[in-house]
Amino acid sequence: MLENFTGLAIGLATFLTIGLFHPLVIKAEYHFGTRSWIAFFLLGVLGAVVSFFCESTFFSAVAGVFAFSSLWSIREVFQQAERVRKGWFPANPRRS
Asked: Which of 20, 34, 51, 96 has the highest Cβ tally under 10 A?
């Protein structure tokens, strides 16, 4: 019976992960600039390794979603910098 909810649980975890990364990218770019891509890359690699070694399908899928969300955030950090340049988001006044 619980196996029937695995797909929904993975979907919910995916939704929450994407929801977490959206503001995380904005904050990372604000505080650290585009060099924050390194942290997202390392998180992506870590998530991929965890996904590879998990024996549970659920946790492997969630780790894989986390990994690819982290890797996708690399692109988003650079796009966020462009949005800041256009004035759509505030720039950090302490960073030049």
From this structure: 51
